[in-house]
Design a protein that fits this description.
This protein is α/β, with parallel strands linked by helices. The protein has 16 helices and eight strands.
Length: about 325
Amino acid sequence: MTEKFPSQRFSIAPMLDWTDRHCRYFHRQLTRNTLLYTEMVTTGAIIHGKGDYLAFGEQEHPVALQLGGSDPAALAQCAALAEARGYDEINLNVGCPSDRVQNGRFGACLMADAHLVADCIKAMRDVVSIPVTVKTRIGIDELDSYAFLCEFIERVADKGGCDTFIIHARKAWLSGLSPKENREIPPLDYPRVYQLKRDFPQLTLAINGGVKTLDEAKQHLQHLDGVMMGREAYQNPGILAQVDSELFGEAQAAVDLIAVVRSMYPYIEKELSQGTYLGHITRHMLGLFQGIPGARQWRRHLSENAHKPGADVQVVEAALTLVADKIPAAV
């Protein structure tokens, strides 16, 4: 009998401009168990925006909404709306270091105010029954001691009632580094996150930052409850085809990547009929055949043709012919 693991065991990070609903639908064709996250959505966009910032498809479950904000009342309002829409989890962003996010007083700068973060979490937990979690860094600027991290976690857990944290194992510099540099320049400190689990064994702790292979994920899972993979999952999505068997213990046949692409066709046709451009969907699929002969031709054909007027699934099928005869039946 397969052991039932929580979805937090492996998740795909919220990534701005990347993990939209088309991306999540595609990723779900590759893995049934992985927890998927939305892009960060601000409370202001949800409450005052003209678009539907909570839209997602039923096929995406389990799916978490990541919120950006620091007003407990606004966060509670958005959390309640999200639960009513069917999200499986609410996550508060306490990790993004961009200037725009800081100016809105949310993201990584909130690490300096654990009391406020606790208030935000409690306000959301008071109005929803689904999990409310925090994604954070190991520190910001000069506030980067292990004692500071422990005090932050303890405050948010005790006063806010948060029992699940996703820890990006880098500190963030709030000035002087771009968001991209903040993902690469501050050194990773995995042992610090491992120590956190030893000191807070009652909490569910997942790690994020620099994870590129499922073997690395397995190493982290020897110390922690979960692993969040970011850019590698997006740029090399074929890796997700192994997650259910490798990390969730499911007995499954090898995944046929050609069949995965074709499983997208009904979704693509439905979206096209509603005015979506093909390229808005296929841009998330470009890296699927990474490392396989024909992958470059696949990417090029989609990149050059998916944005043309009238582009439809025939563009994708034509791109498949450039790689299909070079790939094993299943990988």
